[in-house]
Design goal:
The protein is α/β, with parallel strands linked by helices. It has helices at about 5-10, 20-25, 35-45, 55-60, 65-75, 75-85, 90-95, 100-105, 115-130, 155-165, 180-185, 195-205, 225-230, 260-270, 290-305, 340-350, 420, 450-455, 460-475, and strands spanning about 145-150, 170-175, 210, 230-235, 240, 255, 285-290, 310-315, 360, 365-370, 375-385, 395-400, 400-405, 410, 445. The chain has a 5-stranded parallel sheet, sandwiched between helices. A 5-stranded parallel sheet has the order 6-13-7-8-9. It has a 3-stranded antiparallel sheet with strand order 10-11-12, with no helix packed on it. The longest helix has 20 residues, at about 460-475. The protein starts with 5 loop residues before the first helix and ends in an 18-residue tail after the last helix.
């Protein structure tokens, strides 16, 4: 550790965000450009170089956090980049999109604000690109084995890059017109500008990975045909089967799934369309669901010029601090967090019905009502207790011209026919079943990421991609030197 007293003398300081009034007028990332590097070395100095660094266990990738913190504090950016990329293919993605369970596991967080691990990671990744520390790494020789990866989200991309670098010939199949999965069309540009994604894709193409876009396996190409053409197949399609809200009035027009709404806004930013047909402009918007996808809808609706935006969360408002009895360190606690979108909604007072940041907690949707033309006009809700039982006398209604359902995902989408054509076994939860080696019941077919694990975090998705790559490499060659940071049954730390 460069400064043995850094954690005592330097307060936590995070990457500052741009003023709300400025950033809601564009789709650029919310942070002040160039404001991270001047503070990051001192922030890295706060790392205590713990004898037992629990941040390693909290991160499924096993990131070497104390090592690259020390290197950043000494401003040895090349070495820091090497240590960071040793365990993470895409640190510029996780540095922007991961909720940082590593910070919850930081030993300093026992009684002080944690080290800004996520900010340090992002700074290293960005500096690595700026300084040319991340050139393509094509294999020295090819193995003669071929692999098809279905899905180009973080799991599919990580698996493809690892397998390509191991010498296998890899083709990634993506049903959308551009690769990237949810990072492309689900994550708004104000959270991660797409040039970060394009940069990695170009690196992967230079290494030899092939991309087959606008190709839905099971529909545009038969799953059986793909299995016959390739020595191994990796299913990394994600958990895209969205959950429904079966309440009266659901059939009214103006009620849409979040993943119907968000891709259209991203396509506007890509220049594909001039305006979204589901734009929130001038409409009263209600978002049902309190998670990250709901917050993405919130920030998007604010930028589109909604008349009002309210977000419903069925859970009670969390406490400001960790409950040491129910969620002790180093688990990831459910506490009150203020995302950039909630900060924007709070300052702009987008939700008159909410107390502060556009969220109504402990709120459950009862029904929708509409006008004579069948368009939604009102959402009727009720307050609920901890067991989700309605509280008598608390029913009320909110104006709603656009309702967005952000209720999570249950498993892979079966509409394309991939699952049924291959005859894959599923778990009771609807995810693809696999054994301890990531293999499905179909020989030569492997499953990883949300399609098999269920809805999870980007850091788990990348870890799954790296681990399944090692399993496929072993299947093809009999052994593997590729890292496998997790097993298929590993789960986050809980009580």
């Amino acid at each position: 550790m460069a400064d043995p007293k850094g954690f005592m003398t330097t307060p936590r300081q995070e990457w500052p965000r741009r003023p709300v009034g400025e950033r809601v007028r564009d789709w650029d990332e919310v942070y002040v450009p160039g404001a991270l590097l001047p503070i990051i070395s001192e922030q890295a100095d706060r790392c205590m170089d713990c004898g037992v660094p629990f941040c390693h266990d909290a991160c499924p990738l096993g990131n070497l956090i104390p090592e690259w913190n020390d290197l950043v504090s000494r401003e040895d950016w090349r070495a820091a980049s090497d240590r960071l990329h040793a365990t993470n293919n895409f640190p510029e993605f996780t540095g922007r999109l991961c909720p940082a369970p590593c910070e919850a596991g930081c030993v300093l967080a026992i009684n002080q604000p944690a080290v800004t691990i996520k900010n340090v990671e992002c700074a290293v990744a960005d500096r690595a690109w700026a300084e040319g520390f991340t050139p393509p790494r094509p294999p020295d020789r090819l193995s003669g084995r071929t692999v098809a990866v279905i899905g180009s989200g973080p799991t599919g991309l990580a698996a493809a890059q690892q397998l390509t670098r191991a010498g296998h010939t890899v083709a990634v199949f993506e049903r959308d017109d551009r690769p990237g999965g949810l990072m492309r069309y689900g994550i708004p540009a104000f959270k991660m500008e797409k040039h970060h994604l394009e940069r990695r894709l170009e690196q992967m193409r230079a290494e030899g990975t092939k991309f087959r876009t606008s190709t839905a396996v099971g529909r545009d190409v038969g799953a059986g045909e793909l299995r016959a053409r390739y020595d191994a197949v990796v299913i990394a399609t994600g958990a895209t089967a969205w959950r429904e809200l079966p309440v009266p009035g659901r059939e009214l027009s103006g009620i849409h799934q979040a993943m119907e709404y968000l891709p259209l806004a991203n396509r506007v930013c890509e220049g594909d369309i001039e305006a979204s047909p589901l734009s929130a402009a001038g409409r009263h918007v209600v978002i049902v669901g309190g998670g990250d996808t709901g917050a993405d809808c919130l920030g998007t609706a604010v930028r589109e010029g909604a008349a009002s935006v309210t977000q419903l969360d069925i859970y009670a408002q969390p406490e400001e601090e960790r409950d040491e009895d129910s969620e002790p360190w180093p688990t990831y606690p459910k506490i009150y967090r203020l995302s950039a979108a909630h900060q924007e909604a709070g300052e702009l007072r987008t939700a008159p019905a909410a107390d502060a940041d556009a969220r109504l907690f402990a709120a459950s949707t009862l029904r929708f009502t509409g006008d004579a033309e069948g368009r939604v006009r009102w959402l009727h809700l009720v307050e609920v207790d901890a067991a989700r039982r309605p509280r008598p006398g608390t029913e009320r209604r909110l104006p709603a011209g656009l309702v967005l359902l952000a209720l999570g995902f249950s498993g892979p989408d079966r509409a394309d026919g991939l699952v049924d054509q291959l005859g894959l076994d599923l778990t009771p939860r609807g995810t693809v079943a696999r054994d301890a080696g990531f293999a499905t019941n179909v020989p030569g077919v492997f499953a990883a990421g949300d399609a098999a694990r269920g809805q999870s975090l980007i850091v788990w998705a990348i870890a799954e991609g790296r681990a399944v790559a090692a399993a496929v490499d072993r299947h093809l060659t009999g052994s593997s030197s590729l890292p496998a940071p997790i097993g298929p049954y590993d789960r986050p730390m809980t009580v």
